[in-house]
Structures are given as structure tokens and as C-alpha cells.
Description:
Blueprint: H1 2-27, H2 36-62, H3 68-148, H4 151-198, H5 200-346, H6 350-398, H7 404-438, H8 446-471, H9 473-478, H10 507-531, E1 536-537, E2 540-541, E3 547-550, E4 554-559, E5 565-573, E6 579-586, E7 594-598, E8 603-604, E9 609-616, E10 624-632, E11 635-645, E12 650-652, E13 656-663, E14 668-676, E15 682-688, E16 696-697, H11 710-714, H12 724-732, H13 740-756, H14 764-779, E17 787-788, E18 798-800, E19 805-808, E20 812-820, E21 826-836, E22 844-853, E23 857-858, E24 863-870, E25 875-883, E26 889-895, E27 903-906, E28 909-912, E29 917-924, H15 930-934, E30 938-939, E31 944-953, E32 958-969, E33 973-976, E34 979-986, E35 991-999, E36 1005-1010, E37 1016-1019, E38 1024-1027, E39 1032-1039, E40 1046-1055, E41 1060-1071, E42 1075-1076, E43 1080-1082, E44 1086-1087, E45 1092-1099, E46 1114-1115, E47 1126-1130, E48 1138-1141, E49 1144-1147, E50 1152-1159, H16 1165-1198, H17 1204-1229, H18 1241-1252, E51 1257-1269, E52 1289-1298, E53 1302-1304, E54 1312-1319, E55 1324-1332, E56 1338-1339, E57 1341-1342, E58 1351-1355, E59 1359-1360, E60 1365-1372, E61 1379-1387, E62 1392-1402, ...
Helix pairs in contact: 2-3, 3-4, 3-5, 5-10, 6-7, 6-8, 7-8, 12-13, 13-14, 16-17, 16-18
Amino acid sequence: MEDNEISYSKEEEQKSLLPFLEEEDEAGQFFNVEEHGEEYKLEEELAGGGKMGNKDASEGVRDKSDSSMESLGHYLGDINNIQAMKYTDRIYTLTLQRTLKELDDIAKEKELVVQKARDKLSTCQLRIKMLAKQLEYVDIEIEKEEEAGNVAALSRLQAMRRRLCTELEKEKDFELKIALTLKENMLEMWQIETEQGKYKIFHEQLKKDEEELEMQYQERAKVRIWKEKIAALQAEANRRSREKKEEEAQKEYEERHKKILEDAKRNHEKAVYFLRKSMARIHEKNAKEEVKTQEHMERRIQAVLSLKNSITSNREKLQTLQVWNKAMAFEAKKQEMKMREAILAEGGNVAKEIFLHKRLLEHEKEKQAFREQQKSRKIEIVSQILQEKASIHKQKKRQSCTKAIKGGGKLEDSLLWRMKTWQYIEKTCKHSAGAVSQSWCCPSACSSAGERTASVGESSGKIPHDVLCDSGEDENERDKTLAEPEFPGLWSQECDLHKISKEEIDPKQLATRVEKKDIFEKKMEESQTGIFHKQIASGHEYKGGTFYSKPSCIHFKDFDVGQIYKKKIVLINASYSVNFCRLVGISEWLKDFISIHFDPPGKMSAGMSCELVVTFKPMINETLEGEVMFMAQTGYFSVPLKCTAKRCVLALDKELIDFGSHVVGETISQTINLTNSGALGTRFKVQMSAGDSSTCRATAKSSPGMVTQHFSDCVPEKKVSNSPVTSVVENREQVCPDHSEEVTYCVAQVEQQRTETSLGSSSTEQLGQGVLNSRSDLDTDNACNLVKLSPEETPVEIMLGKVTQGEVEPFSSVKLQVIFVPAIPGDVRAEFVIVFDNSDCKPLCFSAIGVSIDVPVWVPNPNIDLKICMYDRLYQDCIVIQSRAKVTLRLKFEVCKELSKHMELLPKTGYVQAQSSFSVQLKFLPRHSLPEDAGSYFNEETRVLEVPVTILIVDKAKKVNLTVHAIVTTSDLEISPARINFGYCTISEAVQANVTLTNKSILPQEFGFVGLPEFVEIQPNDGLGILLPLESLTLDIIFKANKAKEYSFELTCKSEINRQFKLSCKAVGVHPPLELSHSLVQFAATALNGVSTATLYVMNSHVSANHFTHAVPRIDMGEVAPAGPASFEFCVPEDCPVTITPSVGTVLPGKKSLIQVSFRPALSDQLIREEAIRRLCRAAATGAEIQKRKKDEKREGKKSSISITRQQSSRELVKDGGSKYLTSLYSSEQPKSEELKPDSDAYMAAQAFLMRNFSGRFEKYIIPCFVASGCIDEKKGSENLSCSPYNTLYLEVHCPAVAPSVVVTSDNGTNTVNFGDVAVGHRMIKRITIQNISPEKLELGFSVLNPNGPFLLVRPVGMLEPGENKPLIISFCPNENKWFFEMLDIRMAKTNLTLSITGHGVMPSIVCSVEEVLDMGYVIAREKVTSTFKIQNTSTLTLRYSIQLDSLSSTRDKDQQRLPSFIMSSLQRTEFVGTQNYNGLSVFSIFPTEGEIVAGKSQDFIVTFSPDHESLYYSDRLKVVLFGKKIAHVIHLKGAARDQPMFVEGGVPLDVPVESLAVTSPVSSQEALKGELQEPVRSILLILEYIEGESSPVPAMTELKVGAIQTAKFASKKNMEFSFDSLPLLQQKGFTLESVKGTIEPGQVKCIGVSWVPPADSRADDPLLVTALLTLKGDIKESYRILFMAKVVSAYAPAK
């Protein structure tokens, strides 16, 4: 743990030094001379780092065995490392060079100063000598002059002597100063020389550095040349690959082109084949169409011939009818003449009787025509019904069984409609017959009856239309190309019966036209199917109007009969494709007046247009409407046509004239405009309404609304007759008595009803006059609450002007003048009616009202609104009084007594001149006693004041009332709370208290806190602002103590009217023992999982307890804190993402402690768990819903045979059950948030989702720092210290967190790169993928990792596009057995991403069950034997191993070129590989040869020994290699092979372990039997050493092993026997054998112990050698010569 801390501290130190070097490099500045010692230490550290870098480089060079490019990469990486280290050396070299130069300059300067001082000293000494000589000379001269007695000369010489003595003393003092200065300079110079001597090493170092720099430049040049060569090679390779790709692309293009040509040829042949077939089908279709066209033309020719014949016959009939009509007309004239004569003879009115007779004849004709028309309609309707029945019958046959139900429903509907239609026809016929018979009673009612009949006919025509529309729906669905129904009826004729001319009423002409129409419809039905086509363009069917006309409606306005009018119309093709346009015709009733010139344009492209000319020749002065019909390729279309005759359109600009209030005697006039917007003029006449012939006015107590009340009072008496007057009176009941507009509406309604029921020959004026007279009769009754005056007593106050009748020209207007002359005080109302000569124009009504006033004085503004007023504020207004009088009036102004203290009018009395004005000043000063004084005039809830003010006319005793309105409010501002206690506040912080300022007024008020002390601040806006009505504003009172004392002060708030409001405040100032350098830390915007760091200091400035010299730590004026060390402790909240290091510490007096504050924003664990649960629940609900749907589908498939009702109920049950199952499944499978693990997929997915959708947050934290005097005990902690809560410091931290620009997408988005356990000396590489999730391009930078550390950023990323993923490659190569930790900052423009890199260097260790040697024993040649050993992994990481044998080594061939091992001594032999097989296969084989061993586990290895010939020296060396580099364990493998199943082992080997290269064949058994008496197989030497001199002598001991090999080859043979020869000799010589002879079973080994005790006659200096023969008998017999060598060894002999 200590090692980890030491490494971590070194890394931190290097991290802190590297940015310093970078800053120095960027700024171009160097170290100062005083910092030379620190530079030297830094140089040593950098030099050490350079050595480590060189080691890494050398290791990298040694490992370059994969490829040339990899070795080049390693080399370039090493060169870059060297450059980085040499760069720091270069900085140090330049700094050292500057330092030495400055030192040399200082030395030269000092030398110059010393030289100058020496020169000055020598000059001073010369001057002293000169002065001394002059003084001696003067002394001689003085002696001479004394002897001579020359007083004057003597005094002169004495003065000179005194001067010389003074100068001499000065020069000596100056000499002393110069000598002292020279001594100091010499001392400094010597010091500088000493420093130069110290820096002599640096001079040499500087030369070496320059040489190294030159070598670096050369090395860099070599590297650059190498890079250029590699770039050239790569460019050449790229060029070749590009050429190869181009050749391949050209070949592919040629093959593709060839394939395209073949496909085109093949497709062309297919197209020709299909084209021929299509052309054949088209020719066949054209032939069929030609046959159809010929048949159609023949039918048309036959139709034309039949039409021609019918026209000829009709002409003959018409000629006959014309002759008959002429005869009848002549006969009618005769009868008319006879009638005239008869009437004249009787003395009657000829014109009237003839007119009545003509009208009677015309009515008979109309009646007859109407009957014929009804019959024809009835016939058509019956035929249509029969056709419907036939079509329904056809539809039943054609439709399928599924459509039979719908067809049945429609059939029932059509039958029902048919029954209703027959009933309606019978009623209509009966009603029309009755109406005609009754119409004779009143000739004037004929027109109305005809209109009613026409309306009935129209309605009768509309009902079958609906029926046919319903019945024709199936036909339209079957053939949608038809633009019209299959059976057009009367409903398609858009004409009125009363608009048909008299010629059309002729039954013969009507029948002819009906026949023509039938023929036309049949032809259209035949040709519709072949003509009309659907227009489909780009997959869309055109369904709108085919052609657009410009103008859209052909309108002939205001025509004159006999004139000719022409209009040009443009038709535009608005469809999707080519179309044609053909004129079909116009409406039947327009053919006599309209002619059309249209040249068919043929086929028209989309957007093209054509023209046609419409000519209108009016014959009758009536409005006509119809349409011009055309046929296009997609169907029929029409253009509406309208002809309107001249008419009068009259209107008034207003219906009510309001004169307002006027004084009696004035004359006022207003005008009303009568406008004619039509093209026909007429005469008009304006007269007063009959009801207003005698003026009616309300009494003094009545309201103006009672003027029209007499209408409702007169109704019950006049509700007897059925005349139009009664209907007028009935309509009068609905008139509201308060609105004059409704009176006008009633008059207009009366006139309208009069016009609709008017007599043919009566004039409009008589009609209007009769109605008005009847209304005046009604007004004579029930005149309650009204004052009716006679015309003599009641003057006419509202009258007409000069213009009362005249002519209104077309498109002109006439102004009508209405005069108001008030005579009697009260309300006046008059109604007028405008009647016209034109019978089509309805009368227009308008009204005039006015008020007559007899008071000559009036106030334009009777309601004076002072709006909102405050208490104790003066408000003024001016009241203007107008006078209508023609004399001067005296006025007196009064205010009610209750408000005399608050309101005043000045002056009290005044005079207003004739027809002039007078101003009065109103002063209003509301007091606080206003609510009590005002009484009922003041509403305390609404605070509204209404004050009546009276203006008295003194002479006339009349008064004018006016009212003064005001809303009175207070001007108070309320401060809550009124007192603030800030409590204890340190001098290093500010305490905030909230105050609510409320405006009690309903007016906005400005406020401001003035005269604030320096230690108080008010926010917002520095305590200034505006309060809206009844608004409350929260203010922040910020108090910052400047010294330790008790504070008590008041804050003053002033309003805009200079009112003051006080706020009392208290506080206690505290001076803590410690202080923070910064109390506010504002972090920059930090991305999630990033780190931002800030530093501050905790300072202890308390060094003295003297409070007279400086401020001392204390609470209020209490005891002074003791001067000495003070301790602190930061308490960070649990949920705060801020860490403070160190959080606890002690600061000595006058010192400061560095504090590091780190902000690490992260998503809260609870938020991630909630999102994960939400996603899991959503996925579970989706899965449950899918399962439910599958179950529902299965159930529906099983229950498809159940009835509909039962099926619906079962579905509902299934639905309910499924919902219950879904909810139960959802509730049962819903996991708990506590069960989620941080490494689960759901947790990681939720964390990634929240991070990508993070919108940012801003949080504030206040962290307390508790302060106590004294030091913290390491054992007891802070328990022994007492801290005051008033000394607590507070650190405010602003933590803005933003969404990261770059996130880690690998390893589930974690920002920690954990390499885990890695073997020491081995390298592991990890790939971290980062993604840019911001919408902008990012340029990345990386912090510098520790160059001596185990982490290396192999592949950085320079640029990231939006949404791009790129990998970072980081390697970890530990060199110690410890944990490593570093931080890698990925720097962006706005945010940083911090990666935490950790790894554990582990020293691999294993334990093997076989230590050094694994002896496989004896084996029969060409057989196999296996052995097992175990290796256990005792380290904490998985080990990758491989098993290597020296016999299979790649360097064995080189090793065999050395001297044979048997030539060298046994100590020099290093060869472990012994005898090998002749067949080339390995003697020893291992399984497995490679793999991994998990930490704490073990692995079993099987060693197989398979020799192919006899040898006793099979051997090999097994190496356990970890990670392909480190040899963890070595095992020496041994084995022996025999051709016979017996062996003897022991003693000292007498032969070499390497056999001959010649292959010797094995000895056969017969040869072995023959050679029984031959020499032994081999000799075995047994050495026994007897130790002499011990207290208890022990015999010398050794062993000899005899064994039999277990093998299947000799399984049926007998056991092996052994025996020794020469036993007496052995016993004589002192040798003893444990077993002389015996039997050994196969697979057993017999150990024969041999001991020796020296006999009495033995010599100690002569070793004893005895030979014995050991015989083995089995399948064969073998003999071994055993050499027993014994010697005596002294126990005190020195060890060799």
C-alpha cells in the first residue's frame, strides 16, 4: 500500500511539472538564476526518465520480430520518446546557457568594478603622498618664516597648512572607504569565482548536451529519410494497387457493357414480338369501332330523316294554327266591338268592362295551359316511376347475393317515395283546380295564385328528383363515366313556370318539345358510354371542373328591350390532359333571346383556351336566368347565364335622426340621403306617418321609452278582420317600445305585405295612405299615459324641409332636410314615410327624435371623474359651465355638508355671460377621516366616492346637478417582517434575509431604500423599483460584517411621495480563527462523468492576540481566540457531487493550507434505476400485448362458426380477461429498483439513454467548514477539540452540469478502463470506442500520461465528426507487482471527458508436483509408458502457458555443432537431451502442450515415454513457459529402455551417456543363449566409504537395484532369478550382502543392500577393489560385473 502511495505521489508530481514545462515552452520564457537548484533536480528527474525511456526503447527494439512495418512503428515511437525527453533537455540546456552567460557577465562586471576601485585607491594614495609632501614643505617654510619673523607670510602658510591637513584627513577617510569597498567587491568577486568553479561541471555538461543535440539532429534526419523512403514505397504500392483496381474495373465495365448489349438485343426481340401482337389487337379493335361507327351513323341518319318529317308536319300544323288564330282574332274583335256598343248603350264604363273581359280570357287560357302542363308532368312522372321499376328489376338480376340486402332496402325506399309522389300529385291537382275556381272571386289574386301554383309545381318536381337520385346510385356505381343520371327528369330543368313565354304554353308546341327532348336524351344515352372518358394523369383521376370560363357567369345587366348586346367568353381547359369542347345548347326558355357563335377548336391541350360570342336580343322586359351547356371528353359542363332588367334599388343612409338636447327656441336641421343604386329612376314623396299627424310626447313623469307604447295598447280591439290591416296590427304587437328602429321595421313590413297583396290597378300612394289612416284610427283608442294635444295646441317641432317630393335619377341620390324647432320641454319623436311611383319599390320609413330643455345653463361633463386619489394629496380639476341664455346669469356653487372638509369649489359665486362659458376650480384633498365624514357617499368596500355638486341659478331658482366621482386609496407600504435579526455572521461571509414589501394602494408606487450603511446591500436593483397595485415584492437584505462587534441599525424605505418606512435590523459580527481565500467556487460547465477542479486556501492569519494593533479572532466583543494552530473540517453533504481534499487539517499561525475542490457530475443511481424499471415495464407490457393478440387470434379462429351476437359477447369477455391478464402479468413481472445490478444490461441501457438525452442542470451547494483552535490528534481525531458553531465558515459551490459532447460507447458506456490483472512484463491492449453525440465537429486533445508509467496511449484521435465513432488504443505494461492508476483527459473546446485507467501488475507464480526430475523408469523398447504431474496456478490471474522440450528446440541444430558432451568434464556438461529415437519421433511427448490455467486452479499434464531401441540414457528437458516469455519451471525427464524384461541399476556409471551414431541391431535370444559364457553385459561400480574416527563407527552402506519389467510381451514367462558369485571373497574382504539370491516378479524391484566394514588387515591408504558376478535368469540369462570399491575416510579430513 505504501508503494502504491509512493508511485501515485510521483505521478502526481510529474503531472504537475509537465504543464509547467509546456507553459514555459509556449511563453518562450526560461528559469531564473535563483531557481537553479530546482532546475538541477528537475534535470536529474528528466534524465532518469530518459533512461527509462531508453530502456523501453531497447525493449521495443528487441521485440520487433513480427514484421518490418511493426518494427518501424516501434522505432518511430521510440524516437518520438527520445525527442520528447531531449526536448526537455534542450529547455534545460538553453536555460543553463543563459544562466552561465549571466554569471560570466556578472563576473566581468565585478572585475571591472574591482579594477575601478583599485584605480581610485591608487589615485587616492598618490594624492595623499602629494599632500604629505606639500605639508612637509609648508612646515619647512613656516619654520623659515618664524625664524624670519614674517607674520603675514606665517599666517598665510598656517592657513595653507590647515587646509592641507583638512584635505589630507579627507583623503585618508576616502582611502578607507575605497579600501572597504574594494574589499567587499573582492569578496563578491571571489564568491562569483567560486560559483564559476561550481558551474565548471555544467560547462562540460553543456558541451555534452550540444553534442547530443547535434546527434539528435542527425538521428532525426535519418528518421526523416527513412520515413520518406517508406512513404515512397507506400506510394508505389498504392499506385500499383490503383492500377490493378483500374484494370479490374475496366474489365468489369467491359463485361457489364457486353452483358447490357446482349440483354438489350434480347429485350428488343421480345418487344418486337409483343408489339406485333399489340398492333394486331389494335387493328382488330379499330375495325370493330368502325363497324360500330357506321351503325351509329345509320341510326343518326334515320333519326334526322324522322326529325325532318316531323318538322314538315309541324310546319303544316303551325300554318293551320296561324290561320285559325287569325280567324279567331278577327272574331274576337267583332265580339269586342259588339260588346263596346252594348256597354255604351247601357251607359257603363267601356274601358273597365273590356279590361275585365280581357283579364278573364287570359285567365281561362292560363288555366287551360296549367291543366295541360299538370297532365304532361303527371305523364312524365309516371314514366319515370316505370323506368325506375324496370331499372330496379335489372339491378336485382345483376347484383350478387351479398348486395341483395342493400338492393332490397333501396327498393323499399323507392316504393315508399313512389306512393308519396302519387299522393302529392293528386293533392296538387285538386288544390290547383280549387285555386283556379276560387281565383275568380278576386281578379287581383290571380297572380298570387299562379305564383303559389308554380311554387307547388316546383316542390312537386323536387321530390321525385330525390327519389331518382337514390335509385340511380347503383347505376352510378356501376358506370361512373356517366356525367348525368340515366333517366333525367323534371328536376334537371332549372326554370320557373311563370318565366315561360306564352308560345311555350301552347300544348302542341309543348308536346313537340317533349318529343325532341326524349329523342335527344335517348341519343345522349347511346353516345355517353363511348364518348366520356376518365382523365388519369400521374396516377390521379381528375374529378374537378373540366373547363373554366372567364367570366364565370355571363351577365347582361340593365338591358333595354329592342337593343342587341354581345359578350365574349373565354373557356380554358383546366383538366390534366388533352380535351375537346363542343356546344350542346342553351336553356329552352332562352333560345328566343340568346344566340351563340362558337367555332369548335378541336382538341385542346391542358391550359389552352377558346372563345365564344354570346348575343342577347331582349324582347321582354323581364329578368331571365339559364345556362349555356357544353360537352367535353370527361362529361358535360355549363356556364350560367343571367339577364337582369332595369330596376330601382332605393335605400336611406340612416333610419334614425337624433337631434340631441336643445333649448326651447333654437332651430336645428339635419339631412338624410335617399340613394338610388339601380338603373331605373322613379318619383318619390316624403310625408309624415299617419300615426304622427298629431304630435305625441311623454308627460313629465313618463320615460322616453313610452312613445311607442300605443301600438301594443291598440291591438286587442282591432284583431277582428282578416284584412291586411289586421296583419299589420298583429305585427305591431311584436314591436319593442324602447327602439325606434323596430318601428321603422314594422312600417316596412306593412308596406311589404301591402305590396304582396296589392290590387292590380290601385296606385302605391293610395295603398300607403290607407294603411296610415288605418293606423291613425287605431291610435285613437287606449291612449293611456299619453298626452294627446290638438293640432292647434301642439306646435310641430320636427318638420320636413323644402324638398318633400321629386325624382330620383338612376345611380344618384337626393338630400332630404329635417328641421327641429323645440317649443315645449320634453322628448319629441316624429316618423316619416317615403313612397314611390314605381310599384316594385317598397316604401321607406325613418324617424327623428329630439329633447327640448328649458334650463339655460348646462355642464358639458356632468360626471367629473377624478379617477384614483390618495389620502393627504391635493387633486384639482376644472368644471366648465355653458350658458344658452341670452342674458348674464348669476351662479352659486355648493358642495354637500358632509364633504365640505375635503372638497371645495372656487369661487363660491360667479357670473356667466350670455351664450358663454364659466370655469370653476374643483379642489379635492381627502383626509383619513373621509370614510367617517362621507357617510353614504363613500363605499368602504369598493372605496368609491360619489359627491353631488349643485349649481344654483340665483334669479330663476333653478339648479343643475353634477356628480364628482373618485376612488380613494391609501399610500402605505408594508414591510414584513418589521424586524430582522441576522444572528451571528463571520466577516468573510454575507448573510441574507428576505423581506416582503407590499403596496397597499391600488396605484403603482415607486420606492427606494436610501442611506444604506456600507455593510448592507439590498437586491434586486439595489433596493429601488416600482410596485404595482396591491403587489408584493420579496427583497434580499444582504448583511456583511466588517468587524467583530454587535450591529443594530435601521433601514429607511421612501416612497415617491416622500413617505418613510423603517426596518430594524440586528446582527453580531464574528471574526473566526481561520479564513478561506475564496468563499465562492464557480465551476465551468462540466460534462457528465467529467471532472473539474478548483483550488483554494485555508489561511491562519492569527499570529498575535494584541487587539490594539490589528483585528483579532473573537465572537462579538468576547474573548480573543488563542494564537496558535487552528483545525478545520469540511462536511460535504451526502448527495453532493463535490469532493474536498483534504477535508480535515490543521493550519499553523501565519501559514495556509491548500484545498482542492473537485466536481464530478454524474447521473443519480435512483434516476437510472427508475428509467431502467420504466423500460423493462414497457418491454414487458409490449410482450404481454403481443401474446394476448396471438391468443385472441387463436380464439377467433376457433370460434368463427359462432353467431354474431355470441361472438361479440365472447370477444368482450376475452378482452376483459386479456386486460386483467395483462395487468396481472405487468404487476407480477415488474422488477424492483433495488434488485437491479449496476452491471446489468437494463441498468447500462438506461444510463446511456439518460446520458444522451441529458439537457443539463445547475445546482448550488453550501458546504460548512467547522473551525476549532488547536491541533487534531491523529489517534483521537477531532474529538478532543471544541468548536463554536459561530466560527463556522461556508463555501458556496456552483455546479453546472451539461451533456457530454463525447461519450464512451464500449464497455456499456463506462468511463473506467480496467485492465484487471496483468502479468508483470507483459503488455495488454484495450480498445475504447468514443462517439461524438454533439451536432458539431470536434477537435480532440489529450493530456499527457506518465512517461515512466505503465500506461501508453497508442492511437489517439484527432477529429470527430458528428455521430462518428472512433477507437482509442491504450496499452498497459506493468513492471511491478502493484496497482496502477492514471487519469486521461480528452479535451474538447467546451467540455472534457475524463477516463480513469486502472490496472494491477501481478507477478505470475505456479507450483509443480514434480520439482526437478521426472524418472520414467525402465521400459521395454518399442513400448510406451505414461506419467502424470500437476501444475497449480497460485497467482490471481489466468496464466497462458506453453510446454517446450529441448529436443524440439529450433536451436538444437546449432547446439549439436559444439563439442560432444562426453569429451567435456561432467561439471562442464550442459546438454540435457540424451539418446533419441531412430525413427525421428520424440522420445518424450507432453499433453497438453499449451493452454490457460485459471487463477487458483490446476492442470494435469501427461508425459509419454516411447523409446524405439534399447538405451539407458534417454533424457530431455521440459520447460513451462508463461505468456510465451518467462520460463516458470524446468523438469529433467529421464528414462531407460531394455530389450529384455530385466535390469540392474545402481552404482557409479562407467560409460558415457551418449551412444554411438551407428545403429546396432538388437541381440537375438539364440545369440544370447550361445553367448552365456561370454563377457558380462556391463560393469557396475559400487563405492563404499567407511568413516574412521567417529565415536560409534557405522558400516559403509550402498544399494543395488535389481528389477523385472512388467510387459505384455513377456506376460506368460516365468519370474526372474538373480544370484551373486564369489561370496566367500566378498565376506573375506568385509563386504556383506543383504540378499545373495532371490526371485523377482514382473513389475517389482529388489533393493540389495551392501555394507562394508574394513577388516583388520586392511590399509587405510590403499582402496580395496573386489569383483563379483551378478547373474539374472529369465527368458534369457544376463551377467553383470559388480566392482566393489571400498576405502577408509577420516572423519576429520577437510571437506573438498
